[in-house]
Amino acid sequence: MKRIAGEVYLVDVWQFGRAGLGGVYLIRGEGAALVEAGTSLAVPRILTALEELGISRGKVRWIFVTHVHLDHAGGAGVLVRQLPQARVVVHPRGARHLADPRRLLSSVRQAVGDRFPLYGEAIPIPEEQLYVPEDGEVFPVGKHRIRAVDAPGHAPHHLCFFEETQGLLFTGDAAGLWLDGRLFPATVPPSFDLELSLATLERISALDPKVVCYTHFGPRSGAEGLREYAELLLQWLGWVRDAWQEASWDEGTAVKLLLEQLAREGWPVHDPLLREDLLMSAQGVLGYLKRREAEGA
After folding, report:
1. In total, how many domains does the chain have?
2. Which residue of 151, 170, 228, 257 has the fewest C-beta atoms within 10 A of its own C-beta?
3. What is the CATH number of the domain that holds 113?
């Protein structure tokens, strides 16, 4: 566990069995809170971290989830059974998927294939333990103030959370992945939207965060990464589009060509987990391009 600032701590939940891939942030104080819930497999590590910080389970008031994808909110249903006073703060377009996760589970199973067991289980959350915030709503957590910010693009049900007193911005997947000092695209199916993503990056940049807190993974000082991610999105979309065109619109060939290019550019395509993430992000861009084509754009 690592202290980020004030009473904010990062817990490495060893996503997919590896350190440095996924985290949950804990905020200590009156009405303690979590930012993200991880998968259900992360719950024991989260509960242990709460105990180490001296936070009793009955004192946790909020679980802020940036969006309902299972690596961010999959563990929320298990957590609320252990944290009886906690309510899950979720985007209005995501709440129904946490109340009844069957459709979400089906979508994830289709997207990740053999990796699905690594996402654990998703248990329905009683509606009285779900809370849908207004855009801009502020939640006091001890000395901290957490503002919910509508942030579509990665997914239509995406929020960011801005800690106003320390200038910490919890970006979920809206600003990509920050792994071993490198930005990775987070453009997964089924709903990635380039224009919405760029608009979100502009909006959260205007908050002038002092630290960007990535779920994947950890803090990065300053807001420079937000501008860098906007540039990466445009570059990434161009790479995927060019590979698709070169492959004469055959997706399988396009992905092969893309991986070859990424290898030449020094991307870690030989790492099985990161390769799968890159493949999913390529599929998300292909889906976006096909939707734009169908719309005549």
Report:
1. 2
2. 228
3. 3.60.15.10
